[in-house]
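To the team - MF3 complex, inputs and output below.
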Amino acid sequence: MIILKKESEIAKIRESGKIVAWTLRMVSEEIKPGVTPRQLDELAEKLIREKGGRPSFLGYRGYPASTCISVNNVVIHGIPDDKPLQEGDVIDLDFGVLKDGFHADSAWTFPVGKISKNAERLLNITQEALMQGINRAKAGNKVGDIASTVQKYVEGNGYSVVTELVGHGIGRSLHEEPSVPNFGRPGTGPMLREGTTICIEPMVNEGKAGVVTLEDGWTMVTEDGKLSAHFEHTVAVTRDGPEILTVE
Ligand code: MF3
Ligand code: CO
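Output:
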């Protein structure tokens, strides 16, 4: 069942979303060679708590950190570790905030120093795929309209969408219905209505779509060892169209 939100509830997700966006910006300013994912995770947790929020991911199904930090060939759910970032890496910073009973969730892939032209293109295409998906998040459209738009744009640019993981509804729970895949056919899937709140999160591989989960049970890497990027926003379907809630 898709839980539709009233304006007063969307307002709470928007408040959590502001904390997510602000924290994401503050933490991203610290991204440089030599910094470790664990340091970034600790900073994110501190900032989230300073704003009166709680990190949504910490303890979620036993997840051990406040953020997921996925570097280079790590697709998603990287557990922040002590390996210093290097010039040329790409780093996906992903986390949610719970405040006043409602979650918001966002992710962004950043360059570490100067990155290759290939990597830069992957980031740009993935970000644009997210924006095109968001544009389809209108009342009366279906989830498949978002999914197919993302897939078409990504594959049209020579990359692959990851199919093992999907975006999701969000609200009082971090993960609610509906699932929001990054692949599918237009006109299929659940209907989007005013008050639907979803996380759209394309995960895009430079090479093949295949992913493998490491022994920690979380970290997902590309099967072919090539790069992956991930961008995510929490979005509300409103009378006036899609509203991105994870902005400052
Ligand atoms: N952004 C991912 C998602 O929305 C990560 C959440 S999984 C967690 O599904 F366990 F780390 F919380
Ligand atoms: Co998410």
